[in-house]
Amino acid sequence: MPRPMWNVPGRDHDRDHDFEPWVEVIINQLKGGSMQLDMLSIVGMPGIGKTTLAQKVYHDPSVTSHFHVRAWCCISQTYNKRDLLSEILACIDQKAQFSETKEDDDLPDIIRKNLKGKKYLIFLDDVWDIEAWHTLKISFPDDANGSRILLTSRDHEITGNRHVVQLLTDDESWELLQTNVANARVEVYPPELNVLGRKIARNCKGLPLSIVIISGILATLDQAGWVEVLNSLSSNIVCDTDQCKSILELSYIHLPDHLKPCLLYFGAFREDQAIPTQRLKWLWIAEGFVQKNESKSPEEIVEGYITSLIKRSLVTVGKQRSLGGVKTCHIHDLLHVFCKGKAKDINFLQLSKEAFDGPHHLRRLSYGSDLKYIAKSRIFFTRIRSLLLRCNYFSSKDTDYMLSFVFVLKLLRVLDLGNTEIGYTFPSELCLLVHLRYLAVKFQGRKLKIPSSLANLSNLETLLLTVHCFDRAHCLLPDALWNMQKLRHLHVYGAFIDIRLANDSLDSSSTLYDLATFSTPKFYLGQSMVQMMRKFPNVRELKCRLLESEESTGESNAIAEMGFLTQLESLKLTLGNVTAHHIEFRLPLNLKQLTLEYFPWNMISTIKEIHNLEVLKILQPADGVEE
Q: I need a labelling partner for 332 at 20 to 30 A (CA). Which of 410, 493, 495, 548 fits?
């Protein structure tokens, strides 16, 4: 097997071609060979690049087209069978919803039925021992159609067709470090650092992750700093993962103070989770991590924080945004373990999957287990500021436990229930948490009505509501919403927002000057649409649905006036039931990204040239042609 070279997390790299021999060999084995269900494993010590290699295989176009179904699941050392199977089922069938009334033993059967007769690829990342595989394998049918299991593991006893990833040689280590430092530095580093660099690379013991992390440190230091790093590594000569842990500690020490809490916050998420950076940034802002700057918005400042962590090779880019920037990101599992441990040691964040028994002065909790335990432990949380629930499912009893628990959390600033459906109605108890800055909640059903008491949350900056429904749902927001002057981000996912106001309310309601991102309201073509949009004049990202109003119904021509939204950079328009043959769009001159959904071509062609437009997306044109 050829030896791979490793690129910097989060950036493109011209040495990616060195992966190609490995990728080609594994892909050929996935696609060829026996028609019976077969397992391939990529084995090696932590930090050596197993997941990186597997990702390249999993996402290769020839693999995505070869298999009918693909699913990705991270196992890790401590795992919950139900959570893992639910995660696999969600990949196989995104509309699948596991009922609380079913037993855990039903899940393997549901997955088998979904996979029956299909050629599938299941990727199990970070399998610690063979028992995890034995727990899951009953879910995967063998229909003799060429289906495959691909897994990564540090356990060399794992069966199947094994591919062992080797450590880098001294020369390969130096080449990797040299290239990564050069890419991360603004100026060229002096040649006299080469001797120090070779010694530092050798002390990384051929472990790619250690070299990449060290590169991020060295890129910010002068020669004296390089000497300090070398001395630190030389005095901590340990083996394997312990050596890598000492490098992670060194990297944390060299972080600027304002970036340390941002890095540790990654520990609140699941291992190997693809984290939406927009949501992450809103959380950081709500937590108070962002240093104030009169010339920049909090969102602009926190964008720089993400960039800094990427340049230091601590954060890995997942998906990119159309307009540039990072859409999703994650951290390596060893760094995730470090963040959890460090956060607990300094009482920054506590993670728990079971009953909890302290400390009383806890400020942040990320919890992912049975809520009856957390309800019984609520005496320990009276001073808590942030709660992130990572449960994948709620029963009605769980909702009761959660609400009884929330009653005592009077100081909460961050409440994230966005991964867990809590029922069909918005709990009025949440409106008592007057210090909230960030609230994310998920619901079921076709229609969601938000109580007017929501306006009690006068400090709220980010409100994220998700409605799970097989068809597009509707969300009715109260008029009192316009009194929430600090609101910066308002999003309802899976539902259209009905925010129609009576004429007298339009004139008397307040203007949300700080609202920067908004989705997905319904607007009715005509004067009412203009009046409504003037209530958030500084919006930068907007997704909305256009409908006919009473005044525009039957007209052959209609006007969509939006030119006054001078700060708007990204706009998505979804066309509803409109009988007008022609709509004149007056769009902002600063618009950079425009997405049109369900628009007929004759309307698309009438959109006048937008000089600053960089991205145009056309989704499901009404004429039946998709671009």
A: 493
**Residue in 461, 73, 157 with CA at minimum distance from that of residue 302:** 461
**Residue 214: in which H helix or E strand, if any?**
helix 208-218
Which pLDDT belongs to residue 68? 92
The Cα 627–Cα 620 span in angstroms is: 8
**Do the Cβ atoms of 150 and 25 come closer than 8 Å?**
no
**Measured in whole angstroms, how far is the alpha carbon of residue 155 from the centre of its chain?**
29
Contact (CB, 8 A) for 460 and 488: no
∠ Cα 63 68 72 (to 5°): 65
> Containing H/E element for 233?
helix 223-234
Q: Quick check: 77 and 362 in contact, CB under 8 A?
A: no
Helix axes 170-184, 193-203, angle to 10 degrees: 120
Give yes or no for a contact between 193 and 228, defined as CB atoms under 8 angstroms apart: no
Beta bridge partners of 121: 70, 148
Report the DSSP beta bridge partners of residue 561.
586
- Indicate the SS3 state at residue 559: strand
- Give the pLDDT confidence of 123-140 residue by residue, as tens digits: 999 887 778 788 888 899
Global pTM value:
0.84
Q: Are 217 and 251 in contact (CB under 8 A)?
A: yes
List, as one string, the DSSP characters of 515-561. --EEE-BEEETTHHHHHHHTTSTT-SEEEEEEE--TTTTT-SEEEEE
